[in-house]
């Protein structure tokens, strides 16, 4: 009897330790493009389960908390390196030099996105063109072309208002690498704090141009027109087959193994419901 009692006490002690060690919070930090998607999926997950034991009966009866902070892809990577968040949200490829800072790097690609060259629907450029070349984009964003009439004399002699994301963010890194190459973006551009703010600037000024993410563009198709680039339309098919080349992955990263509760949430993101949320935000979920 004494032996049985000791075993029972040991089991109870062990159970108490598991409960006290159970981490009910999951934190995400990073890409402003991905933040609304993860926030929506988190809300759905919490609404559906409320407490972790309803996700898995082996988990504790503790409230599910998932926190999502938006600060850009670079911030997301740094937050994982510095171990201040569980996951980083990234809207570009992660560099080898960044991966090297993590002892057990893992990435989970959730969707594909593209940067559309977007104009206000009232931009007179659209009266003549539905396409723009990489070379013309380089001249616009570097400042060689200052007025729309520099592109075509039939266009208004109005300043080209260039709108970009923060120069250290994932979107700008993709644009720099894909389009600008070794050329620098001119200094007198409008730097938008988010993709939503970038689109707002374009919708407010018919002489503005910027690179809106495919997801945000799809949410504002009634106000924007996305140009073909070098003859290639930014369509789902062309993004997936890589013929539209200004594109990027949307992923979450982690340094270390997934906890059981983190795995449960990642599985939920990849579920049919999670993919629908990704698609509803205008992005292309992975198969």
Task: Provide structural commentary.
The chain is α/β, with parallel strands linked by helices and 287 residues long. The termini are far apart. Helix 7 links the parallel strand 6 and strand 7. The N terminus is likely disordered. 37% of the residues are buried. Helix content is 39%, strand content 23%. Strands 1, 2, 3, 4, 5, 6, 7, 8, 9, 10 and 11 form an 11-stranded mixed β-sheet that branches.
Radius of gyration: 23 Å
* Poorly predicted sequence stretches spanning 5 or more consecutive residues: 1-17
Measured by DSSP, the beta-strand proportion falls in: 15-25%
- Our measurement of the CA-to-CA distance between the termini, rounded to an integer number of angstroms, reads 56 Å
Please outline the major beta sheet. 11 strands, mixed
Instruction: Summarize the amount of helix as a percent range.
Output: 25-40%
H/E element sequence: HEHEHEHEEHHEHEHEHEHEHHE
Global morphology: elongated
What's the number of extended β-strand segments?
11
What oligomeric state do these chains adopt? single chain
Mean pLDDT: 92
Would you tell me the structural class of the helices and strands? alpha/beta
Please summarize what this structure is.
The chain has 287 residues and is of the alpha/beta class. It contains twelve helices and eleven strands.
Features:
287 residues, eleven-stranded mixed sheet, elongated, single chain, disordered N terminus, alpha/beta
């Amino acid at each position: 009897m004494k032996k049985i009692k000791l075993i029972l006490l040991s089991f109870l002690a062990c159970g108490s330790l598991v409960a006290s060690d159970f981490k009910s919070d999951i934190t995400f930090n990073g890409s402003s493009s991905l933040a609304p998607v993860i926030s929506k999926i988190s809300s759905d997950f919490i609404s559906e389960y409320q407490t972790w034991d309803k996700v898995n009966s082996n988990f504790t009866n503790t409230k599910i908390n998932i926190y999502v902070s938006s600060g850009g892809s670079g911030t997301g990577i740094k937050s994982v390196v510095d171990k201040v968040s569980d996951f980083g949200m990234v809207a570009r490829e992660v560099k080898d030099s960044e991966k090297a800072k993590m002892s057990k790097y893992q990435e989970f690609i959730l969707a594909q996105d593209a940067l559309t060259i977007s104009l206000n629907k009232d931009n007179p450029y659209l009266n003549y063109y539905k396409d723009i070349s990489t070379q013309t984009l380089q001249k616009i964003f570097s400042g060689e072309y200052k007025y729309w009439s520099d592109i075509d004399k039939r266009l208004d002699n109005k300043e080209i208002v260039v709108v970009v994301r923060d120069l250290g963010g994932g979107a700008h890194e993709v644009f720099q690498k894909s389009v600008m190459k070794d050329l620098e973006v001119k200094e007198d551009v409008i730097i938008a704090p988010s993709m939503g703010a970038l689109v707002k600037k374009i919708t407010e000024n018919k002489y503005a141009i910027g690179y809106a993410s495919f997801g945000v563009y799809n949410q504002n198709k009634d106000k924007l027109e996305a140009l073909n680039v070098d003859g290639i339309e930014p369509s789902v098919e062309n993004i997936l087959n890589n013929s539209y080349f200004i594109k990027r992955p949307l992923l979450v990263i982690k340094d270390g193994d997934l906890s059981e509760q983190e795995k449960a949430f990642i599985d939920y993101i990849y579920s049919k419901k999670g993919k629908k949320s990704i698609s509803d935000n205008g992005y292309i979920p992975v198969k």
